[in-house]
Amino acid sequence: MSISTQWKSPVRIFIVHAHPEPNSFNGALTRAGQAALSGAGHEVVVSDLYAMGFNPVSDRRNFTTASDASYYHQQSEEANAAAHNGFSPDIQAEMDKLFWCDALILQFPLWWFGLPAILKGWVDRVFASGGRIYGGGKWYDRGVFAGKLAMCSVTIGGPPPIYSSGGLNGPIAEILFPINHGMLYFVGFTVIEPFLVHAPARIGHSERQEWLVRYRERVLGLVRAPTIAYPKLADFDDTYVLKSI
Ligand SMILES: Cc1cc2nc3c(=O)[nH]c(=O)nc-3n(C[C@H](O)[C@H](O)[C@H](O)COP(=O)(O)O)c2cc1C
Q: Is the CB of 25 under 6 A from ligand 1?
């Protein structure tokens, strides 16, 4: 790969890794990406959620503060915590990594057409409202993380045809829409087309190595990777319907 297609100055990459088995293909992808980026002089931080024992259950333990001790309303507590520095240390640490990074990578296997629960719980707890991560007019292209990149790197049990537009499981872009649009773009990230590896259990060693080479190329070329073109807030009327429809 020519150096001109890569980032010219060191950047900060935050990988959130969600797989219970270190020797899985997900584990190999994260290690390959981390090594390639570090080797090219970039800074990489990995939150290996299973290794950390990350608690995915969202409740009062998210906070060191309480605005209403008699009734738990998460978004109200998030607003209160944002105003009073009241997030629990495990959530605050993840927020700090999000603000630190230039690009976020979510590495996960597709489980039940979505995120593994540990990663969904990470989003539930860390993407807090009240203006810290979203809210108060900060969403989509006016979001807190506008100007940063995000990408899902996903392994999928089924082969590509079953996830095509006429396929039995439906298009993979639609399955990933809640994550790419509803989570990553919602909080302001520019979303890169996902890196997808289908049926890693059914491919041989040499093909796996080829996928790891492609993944190294993808992460080193993240800045020029194709992005998903979502409409901007200005494209919608005051009922949030596209003006052009
Ligand atoms: C709980 C669970 C749910 C799964 N759901 C799906 C699914 O919805 N679609 C699919 O294609 N594969 C599904 N799979 C298969 C995984 O996506 C597949 O095993 C994984 O991506 C392979 O990567 P790995 O070898 O790194 O684990 C599921 C597996 C598990 C354990």
A: yes
